Amino acid sequence: MAQRDADDVIAELRCELARARVKLRASQAREQAQREALAPFAIAWPLQRAKVIISQPEGLLSSQRLELLAMQPFHTITVRGSTQRVHITLTGEHLKDAFDAIAQGNDA
C-alpha cells in the first residue's frame, strides 16, 4: 500500500513537471516572438537619434535637448473603424524602449 502511494506521488510529480516544461517552452516561444517583433524598432532607435542630431545645426542644441527631440513623435497613422478613428503615434520613446528591452534581454 505504501509503495502504491509513493508510486502515485511520483507519477503526479512527473506529470506536474511535464506540464511545467510545456509552460516554460510556451513562455520562451512568446518571448522570442516578442523579441523578433521589437527588433526593427530597436534597430531604428540609433538611426532616429542620428537623424535628429544630423538635422540640427552644429553646436546649436545641447545633447540633452537633442535626446528630447529624438524622443518626440515622428509618425502617426489613423485606423478607421465603423464608428471611430484611432490615431496611433510612434515616438522616439517607443523606439528607445524597444532598444532598451532588447539590450536588457541580451544581458540576461
Q: What is the first-to-last residue Cα distance?
A: 47 Å
Strand content: 5-15%
| Total number of distinct structural domains | 2
Strand order of the largest sheet: 1-2
Task: Count the DSSP helices.
Answer: 3
The major sheet is characterized as: 2 strands, antiparallel
H/E series: HHEEH
Instruction: Work out the number of β strands.
Output: 2
Kindly provide the radius of gyration, computed on alpha-carbon positions and rounded to a whole number of angstroms: 24 Å
Gross geometry: elongated
> What do the pLDDT scores average to?
86
Task: Provide the low-confidence segments as ranges.
Answer: none
Output the structural class: alpha+beta
Key words describing this protein structure:
108 residues; alpha+beta; 2 domains; two-stranded antiparallel sheet; 3 helices; elongated
Question: Overview of this structure, please?
Answer:
The protein has two domains: 1-49; 70-107, no CATH class. The protein has helices spanning 2-55, 63-70, 92-107, and strands at residues 73-80, 85-91. The chain has three helices and two strands; from the N terminus they run ααββα. 72% of the residues lie in helices and 14% in strands. By secondary structure, the chain is an alpha+beta fold.
Would you summarize the structure shown here?
This protein is α+β, with helices and mostly antiparallel strands and 108 residues long.
